[in-house]
Amino acid sequence: MDLIRRLLLLVAWIAASPASAQDKFIVVASTTSTEQSGLFGHILPVFQKKTGIQVRVVALGTGQALDLARRGDADVVFVHARSAEEKFLAEGHGVKRFPVMYNDFVLIGPQSDPAQIRGGKDILEALRKIKTAGAPFVSRGDRSGTHMAELALWKIANIDIEKEKGPWYRDTGQGMGPALNAAAAMDGYILADRGTWISFKNRGNLAIAVEGDKQLFNQYGIMLVNPLKHPNVKKDLGQAFVDWVISPDGQKAIADYKIGGEQLFFPNAK
Amino acid sequence: MSNGPILPLRLADVSFAAGGRTIIDRISLEIETGPSTIILGANGAGKSVLMRLMHGLLRPSSGQIDWNAPERPGAPRKQAMVFQRPVMLRRSAYANVAYALKIAGIPEPQRGALVRDSLESVGLSHLARRSARVLSGGEQQRLALARAWALHPEVLFLDEPTASLDPSATREIESVIKAFDAAGTKVVMATHNLGQARRLGDEILFINQGRLVERAPVEQFFSKPQSAQAAAFIKGELPWT
Amino acid sequence: MSEALSAALALLVGLDSRLVEIVLLSLRVSLSAVAIAALLGLPLGAAIAVSRFPGRQAVIVVLNALMGLPPVVVGLLVYLLLSRAGPLGAFGILFTPAAMVFAQSILILPIVAALSRQAIEDAWREYEEQLRSLGAGRMSAALTLLWDTRFSLLTTILAGFGRAAAEVGAVMIVGGNIDGVTRVMTTTIALETSKGDLPLALGLGMILIAIVIAVNAAAHLTRELAQRRYG
Questions:
Q1: Which among B92, B194, B241, C148 has the fewest CB atoms less than 10 Å away?
Q2: What would the DSSP string read from start to end of B132-192?
């Protein structure tokens, strides 16, 4: 029927949007906190200008990002959870892991400071005090890099959080932004990456309580997804991105990214 | 290849039951070409159901309904029906008639002339482009007649076609029916209106409580009814069933 | 609230190119999905309306129930289909607008089919005798009724469009909310909210509502004019 043919043509025309008609592109699985920090908005145009390759970032929690790559739905993985990344490599899904940069976590808390830890420099001590005081603490609970860093810190502080958590420990299962929203709403403590915190606009009574402890440093790694295991991976384009990110050019672009004059990410590729 | 005329229509011991009730009770009759046949009876006598059985919209619970020559599926219909309330599509009057021709498989180039003739014969040419559903009740019923007429059917069934119309519209419809009758179409019409039966009918089939009670030429039926029910009906005394 | 209003107005007045791109993509995706759902769902609904077959009532119940398919579940299922690890992975449409159209089409197909089934069945009650008397076969009658009830079917199609334009669960999962490629109004609102940028999110939300209202108003007007003209 003529009407049907015309409708189909219309649908095809409508659905074909210009941006996705790019032929040189890769899919990079990364984390929500990295994307929300605005880093990609800053460094990807530099890369695209240089190579003509469009980088499409799918932002999820670290666990989900790695799972996405395990299914072959990404060409490159760019996350910040070393042990999970090593596991990914050991399973044969990645080619090689390169350190890229680090940022740090900060412990955010309410001005009222029920655990009395503000201005401290010892994160472990701070966590112990929060537990003792039973002060509200919001956890991401979503297997993200931030979540795994939080769990690691409880462990190092000798607290078995699974057993010792009480109603003061709120497991939200959400991204950094929503979790910060929740902390603001309940005047609670929360571990956040500095980047998200700096751009976060809905602060309420929250402010930085503890920062600067070396334990709070958060290392990023980049890996090309293994083309031997996933033949559809765009290995040349993906490798080009990995190479650029750890090159002096890419490292400089990372260092140049500032919010409110503050540098967020510190390049440390070797 | 035509199968020949579809009349006479023969009903043999036809019954129809629904919802536990017998609505048509063992009716046998023959419908021949020629005289216009009125199916007369009170409301609830079973006239509408009988019409629908004859037209093929309902299947009998028992008994046989046979036409002289069966209609071939896919070929233009040789019988048409006009209902008490006209049902028009959301299109122009012209388009509604053309639709009937389209269903019958008449090729597009030939439809125009047929539609115009039909509309002319019922006096609706001036309303051809008007949307059918905004026409008056009488105009829509005339349009239904035009649509039924467009294929020049052998048999035209009419189920109380003027029951919902005012007297002047009724007169218009009756004159159209008379014209179709004169042109050779077999008219089979159900009504409970005695005056209408007398004006339009050549023979009367009197139905009461699902049974064929009496059949006679029109004048004979009204002057010398053979059955008590018919006599009572004519006098207006037959109870509402 | 007033912060949200001024944020929205600033976006509109500035005709921010990113905003325009996002809105256009949203419309492209949802309108395509509606077109596909209509192409498939209208004939399906009409066919069910005029047919009699064993299990018909069960089919109708299931179809009505599917109208309430949770978008996030549809997103998950479509993701599993389109993932490289899944059966349709070779097409490589995951994380593109095509995947979003696919998912939304599935989401609103039951709405179009179920509501058109209802409309056609109501019309069939009115027209059945007459159409059969004229010699129309069931399927030919169904098509005729589809055209005849076109104005109330327009409302059905709009219901589908409203559902598609407003959902976020399906397009988020199969589109990936990729900046400049698969970011639509709803996923942008979700993103801005999670960034804590509430005024911006609210502003975008108001724009989305305005679009949906405009589309509905246009349809209402069409129906009113049609009713007057065709009866």
A1: B241
A2: GGGS-HHHHHHHHHHHHHTT--SEEEEESTTTTS-HHHHHHHHHHHHHHHHTTPEEEEEE-
Give the pLDDT confidence of B67-121 residue by residue, as tens digits. 998 888 778 889 999 999 999 999 999 999 999 999 999 999 999 999 999 999 9
Residue type at C203?
G
Provide the CATH topology of domain A104-216.
D-Maltodextrin-Binding Protein; domain 2 (3.40.190)
Q: Read off the pTM.
A: 0.84
- C178 interfaces chain A, CB cutoff of 8 Å: yes
Q: Please give the CATH architecture assigned to the domain spanning C2-230.
A: Orthogonal Bundle (1.10)
Q: CA C181, CA C21: separation in Å to the nearest integer?
A: 9
Phi-psi region of B215 (alpha: psi -120 to 50; beta: other; left: phi over 0): beta
- Residue C54: count other Cβ atoms within 10 Å of its Cβ: 7
C102 near A CB under 8 A? no
**Contact between chain C and chain B (3 or more Cβ pairs less than 8 Å apart):** yes
pLDDT at B1 over 50: no
Residues of B at the C interface (Cβ-Cβ below 8 Å)? 52, 55, 57, 76-77, 80-81, 83, 87, 89-91, 99-100, 103-104, 131-134, 147
Pick the CATH number of A2-102+219-267 from 2.40.128.50, 3.90.550.10, 3.40.50.720, 3.40.190.10: 3.40.190.10
Identity of the residue in C136, C150, C230 whose CB atom sits nearest the CB atom of B103 = C136
Does the CB of C21 have a partner CB in chain A at under 8 Å?
yes
Task: ipTM value, please give it.
Answer: 0.91
pLDDT tens across C147-183, in order? 999 988 998 998 899 899 999 999 999 999 999 999 9
